Amino acid sequence: MMIDWWHRASWGVLCMAALWCNARAETRFEFSEPQMGVPFRIVMYAGDESTARTAARAAFDRVSQLNSILSDYDSDSELSRLSRSSGSGRDVPIGQELWEVLSRGQELAVRSDGAFDVTVGPSVNLWRRARRRHELPEPDLLEKNRLRVGYWNLVLHPQDRSATLKAEGMRLDLGGIAKGFAADQALELLKRGGISRALVAADGDIRVGDPPPGMDGWQIGLATLDVGNSPGVETILLRNAAVSTSGDLSQRLEIGGVRYSHIVDPRSGIGLIDHSLVTVIAPDAMTSDSLATTVSVLGPLKGLELIEAFPGTGSRILRQPQDTLEVHQSRRFAELTGSSRPGVPLEKIKSTFP
Questions:
Q1: What are phi and psi of 73, to 5 degrees?
Q2: Is residue 140 within a helix (H) or strand (E), and if so which, with residue range?
């Protein structure tokens, strides 16, 4: 009897200890700071504030380190140094992180026939200046810089992990892929530190791990187009995946009634004039980030065809040509959104894969 009582008492103590530990592990913490030119936000569930702050600091430091490698704004970054070698004929050794991003970018460039192109920097710079001055780039400069763009002029050498920029005046721009990569890296660092219930948001790119305690997934609101007849904000559930949104809601240039996006078509050198919002769900944020940009350039038909070729990936496109709202959706998008609140009536979907 005494032994049985002792066992029951010990089990009770262990259960109370387990509940206490679980309660500590379920504490929510949130941190944010500017990184890579945008607000970076980290939400996590950790045992105590000290652990959470240490983990968040390490994740932000990792993003800052990646920015020093991948930024085209920082003249001392590894990417900028590589750009300055263009036309020299030199094979420039590059680090693992830059190699990984450039390799993924080149793969997507080939698969999209140049709709995604990390060599688009010369054209992007013209449109950045155009937005600052509120005037369209001069046609001769547009054509001159367009001729400096072409993914085939970036040659990667896997045997010694080096890169060659064959044409003069090239400038690499990783704006459509680097933030997603950084979000992936930040979440991976948190996981290695024992924090698996976490969310990393890099502006329009969100990467999530295991869901919050007692939840099936992280609740994420999808942005909607800024037009009167656009569907309302839809809340989706996401776990161990990523979602990215790309469009002209915040960065754009409007001249003569025409709205030019900050997203530049690498093939023409012109800012997109299609008023649209592209959402991509994918297994990782580097994929969702780069595909959201690519689908924006390709448009609904070719864009969704490309999405279908990527496993575990889905996309929805909201666009307004003239006065008509169109909603285009890939076959897998609905099943990837979890138990979402329906935000788009089926009769409004213009193009859905069977």
A1: -80, -35
A2: helix 139-146
